[in-house]
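Help! Submission page says 'invalid entity' but I think these are all valid:
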Amino acid sequence: MPARPYIEYRDVHVVYSNGVKGLDGVSLQIQRGEFVFFVGETGAGKSTLLKLLSREEHHCEGEVRLDGQELSDFSEYNLHRLRRQMGVAPQDYDLLPNKTVWENVAYALRAVGRSRREVFDRVPKILLQVNVAHRADAFPSQLSGGEKQRVVIGRALINEPPLLLADEPTGNLDAAQSEEIMRLLADLNARGTTVLVASHDLPTMEKFSKRIVCLERGKIKEDLGG
Amino acid sequence: MVDRIAFIFVEALQAMRRNVTMSIAAISTCGLALFLLGGISLVYVALDSWGQSLSGKFEMRAYLKDGVKPPEISKVAGEIRSMPGVKAVFWIPRDKAWEREKVKYPKEVSQGLENPLPDAFKIVLSDLNQADAVEQSVQRLPQMDPQNPIQYLKAEQELVEQSRSFLRWLAGSLGALLLLTAGVLIYNAIRMTVFSRRKEARIMRLVGASLFTVRVPYMIEGTLHGLAGGALACFLLWACQLSLQNRLEAFTALGQLPPFPAGAAFLVLGGIGALYGFLASWIALWVPMRS
Ligand SMILES: Nc1ncnc2c1ncn2[C@@H]1O[C@H](COP(=O)(O)OP(=O)(O)O)[C@@H](O)[C@H]1O
Ligand SMILES: [Mg+2]
């Protein structure tokens, strides 16, 4: 008998309030430690697929399970328990513009209840891990796209999550910066983190031979193993 | 733990700094509402004690029929003294009263006139509310002169009663209206904060902060608005009392105002304000935001 999948989508449908179908019957299994690209044109449903896992969106039909937990069982009141099991790097960078890089990461740590001492201990390590330690005192507006993305990934790592969701992490980056970001994600994956990346950056993806799930209009068109 | 509380408080204070104008509007309206309510209650209490002291000084004058003899007069005095609400009864003999009149108006009155005054009782009341009953019972006594009705300060008593019900009405309607306005303003201030901090809130939630951590700063903000309003009301009341006291010092007869109960006023007004702000912000968070 195969092991229970870490992530499982079973015949998932998402319909947005305006009647648009975000996902139209998606079934998919992902094992612990995998690195998966979700690819497809804009509007194919890549972000929706990730947002279901972080419960930023709801599915109206089917099942979505993470580590055996049905995600619709989480309510507003215990959602933070789910969110602490993953790191989310959203599509819009969503850094606080009036805080420095250091403060942005520290703020997230404080928000999840870490003490000031832990913050002083952990922030430098996280910044080093995503290679922006030298930009600790810069404000987001002073950063390059690649640096911003690193900070966002760093912020997603504060709970040392076993799962990382990155939505278009190379969206606005040139080829060199894109490759660096992907290498960072691949490194995290190599150390055991399951990584799901939504992207339409095929050239960069092709350099990393990973599993690629192709989406088209809310359906899975192809699922190519790495 | 201390660290967590510190974080939440810093968040609340930063939220308040963000929309200062709205905070000031909410705090001052809340302060004004509580000032009015507090001020009216203080005046109410003062009026009440004035009414009480009035009834202590308060006297009736009752007139006896002609020719009632002194032993019977003291018997009647004893009867009146035993009535509820009566503090003391003094007999004012007609001769003594006449002497006094003569001293007051030497020319007009004393010119060969015979004493026209009846014997009278001065009745001092202990309870203003019993005045009517005492009047009726005394008037019914056979020794009293039905032609010469009892005199007392009915008008003053009614004035006190009317002022009190007017104040009750004023406090009720105006205070409630202002308090409602204050509530709406606090609600609005919190809504604005929630809106202006939606990015922070989104990040906090995304990285796994509990709803409690995200929301409590707003509740603190609302509660602080109410508390500051209470403090403002306290200060205004104190200032009013002070200026009133200065003005009243000219009239020694009115005596001193009672000292301002600063501690109690702050506890009560601050408490009400804080509770009110807490409720307003709770509702503000509970009503969903349209995005
Ligand atoms: N909040 C939303 N309200 C309405 N429609 C939405 C919303 N989010 C996404 N959609 C629609 O759902 C479809 C899938 O969107 P999305 O998952 O964001 O695609 P992708 O990330 O692949 O570009 C698109 O047609 C998009 O317009
Ligand atoms: Mg997208």
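Support: the input was valid. A stray whitespace character was the problem, and the output above is from the cleaned input. The CA atoms of residues 60 and 87 of chain A lie 24 Å apart.
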